[in-house]
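User: Hi! Is it possible to get a structure for several chains at once, not just one? Here's what I have:
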Amino acid sequence: MFRKLMTLEEAQRTIQTYFRPAFVGEEEVVLLEAYNRVLNIDVVSALDIPPFNRSTMDGYAVRAEDTFGADENQPANLKVTGSVNIGEKPTVTVAKGEAVEIVTGAPIPEGADAVVMIEDTEREDDELHVFVAVNANENVMKKGSDIKKGATILKKGQVLSSSEIGVLAALGLTTAKVIRIPMIAVLSTGGEVTDPGKPLPEGKIYDINAFSISTAVIESGGKPIYFGAVPDDKAALTKALQTAVASADMVITSGGVSVGPRDYTPQIVDSLGKPGVVINGIAVKPGKPTTLGFVGDKPVFSLPGHPTSALLIYYLLARPMVQRLAGKPVSGMKMVKAFAGARMFSAKGRRTFVMVNLEFDTECRLIAQPVESGASGAITTLAKADGFVEIAENEQFVDANQEVAVALLKSAKGSV
Amino acid sequence: MFRKLMTLEEAQRTIQTYFRPAFVGEEEVVLLEAYNRVLNIDVVSALDIPPFNRSTMDGYAVRAEDTFGADENQPANLKVTGSVNIGEKPTVTVAKGEAVEIVTGAPIPEGADAVVMIEDTEREDDELHVFVAVNANENVMKKGSDIKKGATILKKGQVLSSSEIGVLAALGLTTAKVIRIPMIAVLSTGGEVTDPGKPLPEGKIYDINAFSISTAVIESGGKPIYFGAVPDDKAALTKALQTAVASADMVITSGGVSVGPRDYTPQIVDSLGKPGVVINGIAVKPGKPTTLGFVGDKPVFSLPGHPTSALLIYYLLARPMVQRLAGKPVSGMKMVKAFAGARMFSAKGRRTFVMVNLEFDTECRLIAQPVESGASGAITTLAKADGFVEIAENEQFVDANQEVAVALLKSAKGSV
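Assistant: Yes, the chains can be modeled jointly so their relative placement is included. Here is the combined structure:
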């Protein structure tokens, strides 16, 4: 039975059409655990910063008008009546003809409106000679001049990096209201896979995808709910998918390393609710058996079974969905330029992705060496593939030494 | 008193000379929490993968010699004696003249040495006509052909991304032995700073750096130990530094927003142990008051007090130290190309870093707009600075519209 497969772009448009990311909720976290989270509120400053007029220099707080006309030859002569320490409320005031010792960052005492730098003065006991004139507000940082009370400093939707967390602390806050981390159920199907950590029954292999995809989910800003390998019968898979849809914000399944005739997932998704399956196979290699359905607004994304294919399709199509649920900006794949280490062929009429390993050659050129792919080396491929080269449907091959763009699967190699 | 300041490169060489990152220890973590951790052992496979000869096709397991000479006109005629399911130990064997139904991924039953694809056969009841000859091992993935038992699959020092965690699961493992996360004590000094979350005493401002630097430590692969703002007296600071050195793998301090005359940190570090202070001021702007000392092999890094300056120096000099303690590859700063939005001046004879905000203009050119810096806008600068432009000591300025490389302070903007 012939069925025309969607192109990758048609699949992306289908996701645009059907995917309405639900708001997953808000939680309050302490600042030291807020890294990489997404603000769910506009942050308004409850205080003026600085909260008082501050000196920006070491010197003397004075009344500016007392220094008018002063110069090297005709210093203004003032009387030092005390000092202001940093971090303390001034206990002195400055009257006409007086000066008060002050350090950078300390509050300007009442009566004063400027600071004379220590370099511009000479002092004998409590007598101060000022050799320059200062204007009102000179060397003074006015209350609220950095941030005004009531000003919006950070916006809803901002991702919290070290800078933003510093800003929140500056406002006196110790917590932030952020978007809850979306829960992503991750489960593996296929009769031959079994959970690691138990003895391996004869005829089975250990499940890879529940672990690699869960980790990729963490990297994307989601929290995986580990369902592991689900037994290969329709009732068990139906139950697992029902539980997953009920408990998570999104469900990601993957086939076993080999997808046999018994992949029930699409028909179960169709049976669980509308609109059901909206993508059923894509014209890409690898990744053809990719499907996506929705049960209400809950996406159920089914990745191919081969581990590198599963990661590839995750990064291309599923990661943007997890990022949108997390409220994060959708990031493109990190790309590096390299030279093809060998000719790489495309699959006729399908967008082809060739897994490559990146190494520098003796001339320090970055070489993208195709990794032996296919069923014959699932683990070897997974261990070696740093990224992939994309070949368009209408291209036959990429030639050796041709410059290629490599999309990186491993952030650790991002620095190559 | 004149003291020649180190250049940034001299400071980097000094770190190379004195910093011998201690091994911080090993711990065992479950795979689902192993993302971004660093392997502390070579991982050797305890099993052959696949653990049995597997079929790579749907079809029939046969003895290859029974098909020799078969073609479209002269099929080999075999008797179907049973079937092998995926994920199950075969209960049948294949004798001369026999065939057994098999699916992709299922184990090859005893006696058989090849698989004939279903497309190359015709079946009537238990009689099978095979229209091609297959060689021994055709359509069979041999036991151990992906990974041999005893082979080293992952190496000590590898950072665990989704791929490597998938590989560990494939080997049947549920945990990984990784390098412990280095503990980094983070404390703020300066008489004017106080911890957020409490009412603000008059004359004080809230501490920023303990939070922004702690977050940057997390981003670098370290675990911050929050000491907060330490009171501005020598005894209290000595005690805090002693505790920090004793309990952490590295200590990072920062001055208050303004560094007054009372910065005791270097002399306390000198008093705590050898070799003491090895960097005391750098000819960069901002960042001049940077110091680094060692108490034994424990680094005590003192950042400037201004929040963006502290982050800048952290990224330039301290982050590589945290990454090395974590066993991670030292990453350079992420750079983007942009056009200067205004002329930016350098400070005479000092390497100058100008904080910039990145925005696209109406022609979709990425513009690096200098952010008003200095004491007058600590929080504004922190909130707005996406990165910085470096100006060499011998350059006077970077002109408006000149192409510049911007080092990114916020990973979230990495996708611009």
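DSSP finds seven helices and 28 strands in chain A. Chain A touches chain B through 101 residues (CB under 8 Å).

User: Great, thank you!
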